[in-house]
């Protein structure tokens, strides 16, 4: 009887007498043995640090994640000098986590050896200073571990997003696209980076949760920023410093002015935090205007709340009054329209819809003169789609000079 037809238990027992290199060769020459041999081959894994050859950690993890059943067959794991080059405190905690089989310890080994990756996405709490992955990133950035040589795209969202932890992502000089959550930070925190090369290559920045004052400090640094996505939260009653109590449009424009000469794409989203959920939004304090945005001549793709263009006074401003003249695509969200701070918008739903329709229609009909490059207007609502469905139907049914598209699925904000 051919060996390939023998019971799996017998085949496994025979293969257990062979060396690792023999098992690997057997997998290559006979596909029928691969499934059986694989379990034996991955039962005993040794990590060995060789200065002339990096361990094939990427290939190993790729195989394990494609065939997670192999994890159940790993019975022995040996670490030969794999983390001994680090400081004693980190070495002890790292090997301790490895022996307990914690996944972040294996991920840290992977990250420690990577130098040629171009994309890195981190979620959860994995970069805080107590976490092993965060500490490994810090060592790579400081040069104590092999540096990232080709890393261009970095994304970090979720977790506590503490400033001191997120800031290290700004210190990877090769990065061109950076997206992350960040809480507020002390004034002057970025000053020490002002003369460095860290921001020189940055062309895309997406930040969630940072105030206008903080963004002003960050945006003063990049020399060639072309795309900015910025999302934050306002609250009328809060002790959280990361939530502004007043919506100051002048302050936002001032923060943006640092990148006026390079910015081509701008996305602004806000959320109004309220404790009166069933009674609607609390009235927010709005001041200033967005008229300064008109001077951002390089912007061709703009997303922001409609209220930022129309203002909150007794009478709405024409939407093209603040819109940069080179705009090709304009995306307007309906956030804040129902807030009591918007004086011009009546409480009657039908009158409100008619007023908004008139604003969009006037912009469209006057576009050939005021916005000659405008090709499309997108309308969407981040939070209250069902409250605006009548308005959206009216916009779709009204013939306009410029294409108006109602977006029922909120577009992804952090899109490289």
From TrEMBL:
Gene3D superfamilies: 1.20.1280.50. SMART domains: FBOX. It comes from Clonostachys solani. SUPFAM superfamilies: F-box domain. It comes from the Eukaryota. CDD domains: F-box_SF. This is F-box domain-containing protein. Residues 1-50 form the F-box domain.
